[in-house]
Amino acid sequence: MTPCGRARTRHLRTRPLARRAQHRRPSAPVPWGIATAFVLAHAWIVLDGVSWSGEIFGDVSLYHWWAHQGFMIGRWPVLDYDWVYPAAALLPIAAPAAGTSGFLAYAVMWSAGVIALNGVALWMLARTPPRGRLAAWWWLLFLVALGPIWLGRLDGVAAPLILIALLQAARRPAVAAAVATLGAWIKIAPGAIVVALAATSRNLRTFVRQVAVPGAVVSAVVVGLALAGGAGARAWSVFGEQEARTLQAESVAATAFSVARLWNPAVRIEYNDVIFTYEVHGEAARQVASALDTVLPVAVVLIGLLAWAAARRRPDLSHDVLLLAAAATLLALIVFNKVGSPQFIAWLGPPVAAALALAGPGARHLWSPPALGMLGVGALTQILYPIAYGHFLRGDTWMVAVPAVRNLALVVLLAGAVWRLGQLALSRRPVAP
């Protein structure tokens, strides 16, 4: 056999071995260091959350009341009255109340469920080649930087589901679409992953099989169960409930109003005792909030179209485009949202963590600045809430500056993601699949 033939034979023999090695890598156990860090990080988050009590677990007490009313007198949100959350949010809210009595037991079960779901997401992340362990360390740092706010909110359920969907997107897009759709019926944000999956589908057939059908099946089950329970039109009540809101005080769009308090005493932040949140008072704020009702869906559609063009121009980078589209869409859901609750920031960690684990060789360096930036955004958010929220409401100069800088960083991150998508969409050299 010639040297060339022997080399070719060795090449053919090693390729299957390489493939098998790649398939074995995800099954590697999670390192003890990451497992220990997970326990320590969540122990600190729980203890910190308990120290803030009402600030962190105030919504959990509301969840407990809803669940208690449902189990005791059969009066459930969505099924019997309009609700501010999508229908499937009943599942994580009702589950901790099964077999428990009293708020303390409910809060313990709620926290355990959120931590367990995040543990599944971290386990999958750490086992994801080629850089899952690095991404797992970053994810834990991000959660610690953000603080305990996500633990006491439905966003603590939504964020791990976003991460799981993104990790499944490359190998099992249909599973990713199903997980993201279920997440969207719990808290709307995971729907951003469905948008990214749709935009980066190779063709109509792939879109139907891998995105539309799984999403439709999950939606049919959720809506069907809600209708069977007597919800009627209330199955969609979440959308009507959001329309009545005005600018939340710490939202990105409220930044100009918040800063104006430093010199204009006429700009006021007032407490809305119907939805239990602080909002900017005045007609101008209501007009901005009304405009955002249109701007937000338009922004999501435009990002989807830009991602579609980028995926068509660079099919060799389709998964990088998907991660960019997911990040850009989730950022848009915050930047153009009249509601700006601090726990929303938890949505932004999953696309960064997934990108640190999965981004292609040409895109790895692009995610380092956003990864560092998101740690800063998380820390500033924790300072805003719960640490110094009272100072922010009083209009203290230093605490007016903190959310302003945080919100500016979110705008910059969104602009960067859209800019990169635009670069790929306008690439001069299309690459064949």
From TrEMBL:
Keywords: Membrane, Transmembrane, Transmembrane helix. It comes from the Bacteria. The chain crosses the membrane at residues 29-47, 103-125, 137-154, 174-199, 211-233, 288-309, 321-338, 372-392, 398-419. This is DUF2029 domain-containing protein. The lineage of its organism: Bacteria, Bacillati, Actinomycetota, Actinomycetes, Micrococcales.
